[in-house]
């Protein structure tokens, strides 16, 4: 990874024209350096990220449109447009789109860790079990499945 360079990542584009399909969600990388990694995420209706944690990274979600239901540190909650979700390293979290509408958000993690490499590897992977297994190699630890937060 390199240090940050002055530039603009334009709307509807990712770094180097990249976007990833992560189990039906679209992640578009916007910025990457050793210190942080940010991506725009689109969550179609009824998609989710199951309970997991990052032992070496803090993760954040700024909700742009819609509502995300969350499990955050063992508690159910939700975040809407304009809300910032803080998920400190080591704290289990999960998010669900139960809203009936697509949700968009800006995510970022600090430090960047191995997330770019993880998303490159699991792009277009169709099996959640394979994603969970692969994630361990990139310092993302998934927990047993739970029903969606409401």
List keywords for this structure.
single chain, 150 residues, mainly beta, Jelly Rolls, six-stranded antiparallel sheet, five-stranded antiparallel sheet, 2 helices, 11 strands
How would you characterize this protein structure?
It is built from 2 helices and 11 strands. It is mainly β and 150 residues long. It has a single domain (15-139), classed as Jelly Rolls (Sandwich). A 6-stranded antiparallel sheet has the order 1-2-3-10-5-8, with helices on one face. A 5-stranded antiparallel sheet has the order 7-6-9-4-11, with no helix packed on it. A hairpin with a 2-residue loop joins strand 6 (67-72) and strand 7 (75-80).
Count the domains. 1
Helix count, per DSSP? 2
Biggest sheet descriptor: 6 strands, antiparallel
Mean pLDDT: 92
Instruction: Tell me the fraction of residues in β-strands, as a range.
Output: 35-45%
Order of helices and strands: EEEEEEEEEEHHE
Distance between the terminal alpha carbons, to the nearest Å? 38 Å
CATH-level-4 superfamily name: Jelly Rolls
CATH architecture field: Sandwich
Question: How does the overall form come out from the CA principal axes?
Answer: globular
- Share of helical residues: 10-25%
* Spatial sequence of strands, sheet with the most strands: 1-2-3-10-5-8
